[in-house]
Amino acid sequence: MDVVNDLLPLAAMMLVTGAVAGVLAGLLGVGGGIVIVPVLDVALSIYGVEPDIRMHVAVATSLTCIIFTSISSARAHHQKGSVDIRLVRAWGGWILFGALAGSVAASSVNSLVLSAIFGIVALIVALKMLLPADNITLSDDIPTGFAAPAPPLLIGGLSSMMGIGGGTLSVPVLTLLNQPIHRAVGTAALFGLLISLPGAAGFIVSGFNDYRLPPGSFGFVNLIGVALIAPVTVMLAPVGARIAHRLNKRQLSTLFGSFLLLVSLRMLYQTFVG
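Given the sequence above, the corresponding structure tokens read:
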């Protein structure tokens, strides 16, 4: 009974995390990892997981949850015609490669490094989305030629290191490349699947036989967290997608940026202060 009572607060926290992450997945085109990672990091610290691997477990578990969330979110956006299949075909392979490389690199660095990467990237993206820069673009369209692989490789690599589905990076990158915000959000939802599959696989392999892992772990992926979070995110992602299509471009950008700003400041405080 004591074991059950000890696990109940963690289970409740994970269920709430799944609910918030699911709505945000559909609303912002993110895989929910921008919520799952920081909350799981706190939960794992409460339950005594060693700091050296805590972010690895949070990131790997988040990526596994995103596999299911992205399918639900991408389907909802595809039904509304906001997934750019042409772009998915052009960037898909590069994103897959970047995600696998990012997960391998992340497994070899300290958790504080992952926290710092998470916070800094989220802060940069938040400022971009909050500033009145909707009409600022870097090009008239998606780059081609020699520079074409750079954006998807960056998105895939950094996203798998952060445990996010790619929307956090894909949405601002695509808007800078002159893509409409609603199409960027919808396409980012499908990118989440391309990032989470190889990313989770890399963390599973690299985390095998680590004695510091919490109970219920498969490599760095904690299956208890996946079992509690993933179903709720899948159920609620379509709710967020419906809300997204009721907002205008500026409202959606401001909402995205405000949320990321709060998350990034919290993660940077934890990394550099406490």
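Strands lie at 217-218, 221-222. Try to locate this feature in the token string yourself.
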